[in-house]
TrEMBL record:
InterPro entries: Homeodomain-like_sf, InsJ-like_HTH, Integrase_cat-core, ISNCY_transpos, RNaseH-like_sf, RNaseH_sf. GO terms for molecular function: nucleic acid binding. Residues 124-144, 390-449 are annotated as: Disordered. Residues 393-405 have a biased composition (Basic and acidic residues). One of its GO terms (biological process) is DNA integration. Gene3D superfamilies: Ribonuclease H-like superfamily/Ribonuclease H. Pfam families: HTH_28 (PF13518). PANTHER family: INTEGRASE PROTEIN, TRANSPOSASE RV3428C-RELATED. Residues 142-330 form the Integrase catalytic domain. Residues 128-142 have a biased composition (Basic residues). This is Integrase, catalytic region. It comes from Thermosinus carboxydivorans Nor1.
Length: 449
């Protein structure tokens, strides 16, 4: 009976093939040279395998580490600790890569993404991110310099949790670097939110060359699409919105996209932030917009350090920023009002311009409504801004009617010979009608059957 029949052991297909050939060598069926040629091994290696099988059995052909736990393997205790963490509701929506970062940041557990993936799959927990086949499409090349193009948009979402009302995150991303250059949480997507994002960009970096937005009514007047070709040839233009006017005063080119895909970088940013920022705010216990805005600034630094790319041209395209006072007077709402006697009316109240010269003419001025509610006014032909002070409106009393001298007037009655008292002839009756005669007297003979 051969050695193959005496011993039973689990071997791989490759090892089983070797066992059969070595068994033939031991039985003398084939030579060592023939076995070496069949197994693609050297004769020395075949001799070593033959001696090992004779001494230890066919288990000698199995790999020495078979059945052993690797020295660098994840311990059962660590595996159970990781599973207990990732089963928490706040971590269930984190993808494998983000979960690896959160475990290192909050629990000092440093594992690879592939290890986290294996632990989740072994426990039957799938990643919330669906890996779809990539769609091949032509990508728009990034701008070469930082500050050449800024993409701005707003994203209403359940940022504070599914049980809280939706709020809007208004943000801007640099096209060349993919860096978040400004962001703020607001109750809704509004004008003051975009003013604040622009202020953050200009204060920290400078004035960009162009801004890319959608066609929201904050950016584009609803009447802009109503202009016909004839109107455009005649030079007619739709009025600028408040944000459009601010961009024009800053010398920023305003590019309006007609689809979400056109400004794909900022749309992709929302996908990343809705996946990461919401989870990290939940871990930090963020409950209000004020707390969210404070946390947002720290998150932006970490996001930019991870996702920012180097531009093709290292030189910045941002232009120098204006003074803080000038920027404040640009990033506000401006409305026209008539100035008369140094006083104007705004929102049902009267205001006077502080420091206005006495010789100032009655003209049209611009009322500046700042995001904090402060009111100021400027004269378009002068580079001067005046503070407004509310004045009390004079009390207007109705004039009493003048009493006439003499006795009160008496009712006037028509004279006895007044034409009104004279009779008139009724057709086809031959009777005369006077106010003193009754209907029976006039129509009596006519009404008889």
């Amino acid at each position: 009976m051969s050695l193959m029949e005496k011993e039973k052991i689990f071997l791989s297909d490759k090892e089983v093939r070797r066992a059969i050939v070595i068994d033939k060598v031991i039985q003398g069926v084939c030579t060592i040279a023939e076995a070496a040629e069949v197994l693609s091994l050297s004769e020395r290696q075949v001799k070593r395998l033959k001696a090992g099988v004779i001494k230890e059995g066919f288990g000698f052909l199995a790999h020495g580490n078979r059945g052993r736990k690797p020295a660098h393997a994840i311990s059962d205790e660590l595996r159970e600790q990781v599973l207990a963490i990732i089963r928490q509701p706040v971590f269930c929506e984190a993808n494998d890569s983000h979960l690896t970062e959160l475990l290192a940041e909050h629990y000092n557990i440093f594992l690879s993404v592939s290890s986290i993936r294996r632990i989740r799959r072994s426990a039957g927990i799938s990643s919330p991110r669906k890996h779809r086949r990539p769609k091949f499409h032509r990508r728009r090349k990034r701008r070469e310099q930082e500050g050449m193009l800024i993409q701005m948009d707003g994203s209403p979402h359940a940022w504070l949790g599914e049980d809280k009302p939706y709020i809007s995150l208004i943000g801007a991303i640099d096209d060349a670097t993919g860096k978040i250059v400004g962001a703020i949480f607001r109750p809704t997507e509004d004008l003051n939110g975009y003013f604040e994002v622009l202020r953050q960009i200009i204060t920290k970096y400078g004035i960009p060359i162009a801004v890319y937005t959608d066609r929201h009514s904050i950016f584009v007047s609803p009447n802009a699409d109503k202009l016909t070709i004839e109107d455009q040839l005649e030079g007619k233009k739709a009025n600028l919105t408040q944000l459009g006017r601010a961009l024009s005063e800053l010398g920023i080119e305003h590019i309006k996209a007609r689809s979400a895909q056109a400004k794909g970088r900022v749309e992709r940013l929302w996908e990343t932030l809705q996946d990461r920022l919401r989870i990290e705010m939940a871990l930090a216990g963020i409950q209000t917009i004020e707390q969210a805005n404070e946390f947002l600034q720290k998150f932006i630094l970490k996001h930019n350090a991870m996702f920012e790319v180097e531009p093709a041209n290292p030189n910045s395209a941002y232009r120098p920023a204006p003074s803080e006072e000038s920027l404040r007077e640009i990033l506000c709402v401006k409305e026209k009002r008539k100035l008369k006697g140094g006083v104007l009316s705004f929102q049902g109240q009267l205001y006077k311009l502080d420091g206005l010269p006495a010789y100032f003419p009655d003209t049209t001025v611009l009322v500046h409504v700042h995001p904090d509610g402060k009111l100021r006014a400027s004269y378009p032909k002068q580079n001067v801004v005046y503070d407004l002070t509310r004045v009390s409106e004079p009390v207007r009393t109705k004039s009493q009617p003048k009493e006439k001298a003499g006795p009160p007037p008496t009712p006037r009655r028509p004279a006895p010979d007044h034409p009104w008292r004279k009779g008139f002839r009724i057709p086809n009756t031959g009777s005369n009608y006077t106010p003193d005669r009754t209907k029976t007297e006039v129509f009596g003979s006519t009404l008889q059957p």
